[in-house]
Design goal:
about 300 residues; alpha/beta; Spore Coat Polysaccharide Biosynthesis Protein SpsA, Chain A; nine-stranded mixed sheet; two-stranded antiparallel sheet; nucleotidyltransferase; UTP--glucose-1-phosphate uridylyltransferase; Nucleotide-diphossugar_trans; GalU_uridylyltTrfase_bac/arc
């Protein structure tokens, strides 16, 4: 690996309007998924892939995110005095995962704009962008494969997932060509939220990207697109068309993914993750069956 170490960028400046009133005073990224805030799962994923430097792009009233990843001496001392070492270890974990940095986005001008705010911190390092609405099950690692493909191909890498054609209008869609790896494709084109009949495939972009720092120059001249926002997809489309920059490749993810950006899917994510846990599953799974039988 000849490049500088990877960094990670987590955009977290959204208003979370779909979860009002819960998000009136609490960032949506801090909503609990079982017993951890959603954003902690994302930072854990970056750390598990070997990334030690994480930048979180925040907005107004997001102070709770910084507080969560900071140490809390008073709480830690209370737990230590009580001998509650299990909870103490869990509290410590969130502040020891990585070097966490924060920067404000200012105006919410889209994902592309949020990523561009990372330029000063990222510099000339390659970096991963992880969206907090998409939780990837730790048992089905995705980011490690994406980092490996970046090293192998010296190219930007995005995560793709097959979805029902009727759902493709909710995502960015990729036109692709096969490679020597059945789980990796070369991306020849990208369309943000196309109509079903206009979609180049049913391969949807999900919230994981490994980007070359050259993306910042592209974002500088990317005009607002869908929704009047600066779309990262539009910048990636330009990079996919430019062979001199290495192009764009996609890793097709076939594992477990939880969408916490939608209320119903958020509840499903909690149920699925809790049912799979050794400390909760044995009590929950029989209850789920009994409850389902009453519906």
């Amino acid at each position: 690996m000849s490049h500088k170490p990877f960094k990670a960028v987590i955009p977290a400046a959204g208003l979370g309007t779909r979860f009002l009133p819960a998000t009136k005073a609490m960032p949506k990224e801090m909503l609990p998924v079982v017993d951890k805030p959603a954003i902690q799962y994302v930072v854990e994923e970056a750390a598990a892939a070997g990334i030690e430097d994480v930048l979180i792009i925040t907005g107004r009233n997001k102070h709770n995110i910084a507080n969560h990843f900071d140490s809390v001496p008073e709480l830690e001392e209370k737990l230590r005095e009580k001998g509650d070492l299990d909870r103490l270890a869990r509290v410590h974990k969130s502040s020891e995962l990585a070097d966490i940095h924060m920067v404000r986005q200012g105006e919410p001008k889209g994902l592309g704009h949020a990523v561009s705010r990372a330029r000063r911190h990222v510099g000339d390092h390659p970096f991963a962008v992880l969206l907090g609405d998409d939780l990837i099950d730790a048992r089905d690692p995705l980011l490690t494969k994406m980092l490996s493909e970046y090293d192998k191909r010296s190219a930007t890498v995005i995560a793709l997932m097959e979805v029902e054609p009727s759902q493709i209008h909710m995502y960015g869609a990729a036109a692709v060509e096969p490679t020597d790896d059945p789980d990796v494709v070369k991306v020849t084109g990208l369309v943000e939220k196309p109509a079903t009949e206009d979609a180049p495939s049913n391969l949807a972009i999900i919230g994981r990207y490994v980007l070359d720092p050259s993306v910042f120059d592209v974002l500088e001249h990317t005009e607002p697109g869908k929704g009047g926002e600066i779309q990262l997809t539009d910048a990636l489309q330009e990079m996919a068309s430019d062979e001199t920059g290495g192009g764009v490749y996609g890793v097709i993810f076939r594992g477990r993914r939880y969408d916490t950006g939608d209320r119903v899917d958020y509840i499903k994510a909690i149920v699925q993750l809790a049912a799979d846990r050794d400390d909760l599953g044995p009590d929950l799974r029989p209850w789920f069956k009994e409850f389902a039988a009453t519906l």
